[in-house]
Design brief:
This protein is an all-beta fold. Helices cover about 0% and strands about 40% of the residues. The protein has no helices and nine strands. A four-stranded antiparallel beta sheet has the order 1-8-3-6, with no helix packed on it. A hairpin with a 2-residue loop joins strand 4 and strand 5. It is flat.
Amino acid sequence: MSDRLRFPLSGYLRSGESFHRNVLFEQLLTTLPADPTVKVQIYNAEIAPGGYTNWHRHNGTTFFIALQGTFEAHASDGVLIRASAGDVYSEPAGKVHRGYNPHSELPYLCIGVAITPADLDHVTAVSSPS
Protein backbone atom coordinates (compact mmCIF):
# COMPACT_ATOMS: atom_id res chain seq x y z
CA MET A 1 0.00 0.00 0.00
CA SER A 2 1.30 3.43 -0.92
CA ASP A 3 2.11 5.87 1.90
CA ARG A 4 0.91 8.72 -0.33
CA LEU A 5 -2.65 7.37 0.12
CA ARG A 6 -2.43 8.09 3.86
CA PHE A 7 -2.51 11.64 5.16
CA PRO A 8 0.22 12.18 7.78
CA LEU A 9 -1.19 13.54 11.03
CA SER A 10 2.21 14.08 12.63
CA GLY A 11 5.82 14.74 11.64
CA TYR A 12 5.44 18.45 10.82
CA LEU A 13 7.56 19.79 13.69
CA ARG A 14 10.97 21.09 12.78
CA SER A 15 13.94 20.80 15.11
CA GLY A 16 13.37 23.02 18.16
CA GLU A 17 9.65 23.59 17.45
CA SER A 18 7.01 22.61 20.00
CA PHE A 19 4.00 23.57 17.85
CA HIS A 20 3.19 23.67 14.14
CA ARG A 21 -0.15 24.47 12.46
CA ASN A 22 -0.48 22.68 9.13
CA VAL A 23 -3.03 24.79 7.20
CA LEU A 24 -5.06 22.60 4.87
CA PHE A 25 -7.68 25.04 3.63
CA GLU A 26 -8.02 28.81 3.68
CA GLN A 27 -10.39 30.63 1.37
CA LEU A 28 -12.97 33.41 1.33
CA LEU A 29 -16.44 31.87 1.12
CA THR A 30 -19.76 33.02 -0.26
CA THR A 31 -21.53 29.69 0.29
CA LEU A 32 -22.13 29.79 4.04
CA PRO A 33 -25.78 30.01 5.12
CA ALA A 34 -26.77 33.63 5.79
CA ASP A 35 -28.95 32.67 8.75
CA PRO A 36 -27.80 33.98 12.14
CA THR A 37 -28.14 30.44 13.55
CA VAL A 38 -26.75 27.39 11.76
CA LYS A 39 -26.28 23.73 12.61
CA VAL A 40 -22.73 22.40 12.56
CA GLN A 41 -21.90 18.72 12.29
CA ILE A 42 -18.36 17.29 12.41
CA TYR A 43 -17.90 13.59 11.70
CA ASN A 44 -15.59 10.94 10.37
CA ALA A 45 -16.63 8.58 7.58
CA GLU A 46 -15.40 5.41 5.91
CA ILE A 47 -16.20 3.98 2.49
CA ALA A 48 -15.20 0.37 1.84
CA PRO A 49 -12.90 -0.45 -1.09
CA GLY A 50 -15.05 -0.31 -4.23
CA GLY A 51 -17.96 0.98 -2.14
CA TYR A 52 -20.48 3.76 -2.69
CA THR A 53 -22.52 6.03 -0.44
CA ASN A 54 -26.22 6.39 -1.13
CA TRP A 55 -27.43 9.06 -3.56
CA HIS A 56 -27.86 12.27 -1.58
CA ARG A 57 -27.51 16.04 -1.52
CA HIS A 58 -26.03 18.36 1.07
CA ASN A 59 -28.31 21.17 2.24
CA GLY A 60 -25.51 23.50 3.29
CA THR A 61 -21.79 24.07 3.03
CA THR A 62 -19.56 21.02 3.50
CA PHE A 63 -15.83 20.49 3.90
CA PHE A 64 -13.97 17.20 3.86
CA ILE A 65 -10.40 16.29 4.81
CA ALA A 66 -9.27 13.10 3.08
CA LEU A 67 -7.22 11.07 5.56
CA GLN A 68 -6.66 7.83 3.64
CA GLY A 69 -7.25 6.46 0.17
CA THR A 70 -9.01 7.97 -2.81
CA PHE A 71 -12.49 9.41 -3.34
CA GLU A 72 -14.75 10.40 -6.20
CA ALA A 73 -18.11 12.20 -5.99
CA HIS A 74 -20.28 11.01 -8.88
CA ALA A 75 -23.29 12.94 -10.20
CA SER A 76 -25.59 11.99 -13.05
CA ASP A 77 -23.63 14.34 -15.33
CA GLY A 78 -20.17 12.96 -14.42
CA VAL A 79 -17.50 13.10 -11.72
CA LEU A 80 -17.74 16.22 -9.55
CA ILE A 81 -14.69 15.76 -7.35
CA ARG A 82 -11.62 13.58 -7.10
CA ALA A 83 -9.57 13.56 -3.90
CA SER A 84 -6.85 11.57 -2.21
CA ALA A 85 -5.19 11.59 1.18
CA GLY A 86 -4.29 15.13 2.26
CA ASP A 87 -6.79 16.87 0.00
CA VAL A 88 -9.45 19.22 1.38
CA TYR A 89 -12.58 19.65 -0.71
CA SER A 90 -16.18 20.81 -0.58
CA GLU A 91 -19.18 19.16 -2.20
CA PRO A 92 -21.71 21.60 -3.70
CA ALA A 93 -24.93 22.21 -1.76
CA GLY A 94 -28.04 20.93 -3.50
CA LYS A 95 -26.21 18.80 -6.11
CA VAL A 96 -27.37 15.16 -6.12
CA HIS A 97 -24.39 12.81 -6.04
CA ARG A 98 -22.90 9.75 -4.38
CA GLY A 99 -19.43 9.07 -3.08
CA TYR A 100 -17.28 6.28 -4.45
CA ASN A 101 -14.03 4.68 -3.28
CA PRO A 102 -12.25 3.47 -6.43
CA HIS A 103 -9.41 1.77 -4.53
CA SER A 104 -9.58 -2.04 -4.61
CA GLU A 105 -8.07 -2.67 -1.14
CA LEU A 106 -7.87 0.51 0.95
CA PRO A 107 -10.87 2.03 2.76
CA TYR A 108 -11.42 5.75 2.14
CA LEU A 109 -11.37 7.72 5.41
CA CYS A 110 -12.28 11.37 5.90
CA ILE A 111 -13.35 14.00 8.40
CA GLY A 112 -16.45 15.96 7.35
CA VAL A 113 -17.79 19.33 8.50
CA ALA A 114 -21.32 20.39 7.55
CA ILE A 115 -22.72 23.89 8.11
CA THR A 116 -26.44 23.97 7.39
CA PRO A 117 -29.37 26.34 7.96
CA ALA A 118 -31.01 25.47 11.30
CA ASP A 119 -34.33 24.42 9.71
CA LEU A 120 -32.79 21.88 7.28
CA ASP A 121 -31.26 18.43 7.66
CA HIS A 122 -27.54 18.30 6.81
CA VAL A 123 -28.12 15.63 4.16
CA THR A 124 -31.17 14.51 2.20
CA ALA A 125 -31.17 10.98 0.81
CA VAL A 126 -32.35 10.72 -2.81
CA SER A 127 -33.56 7.49 -4.42
CA SER A 128 -31.78 8.24 -7.70
CA PRO A 129 -30.41 11.26 -9.55
CA SER A 130 -32.92 13.43 -11.36
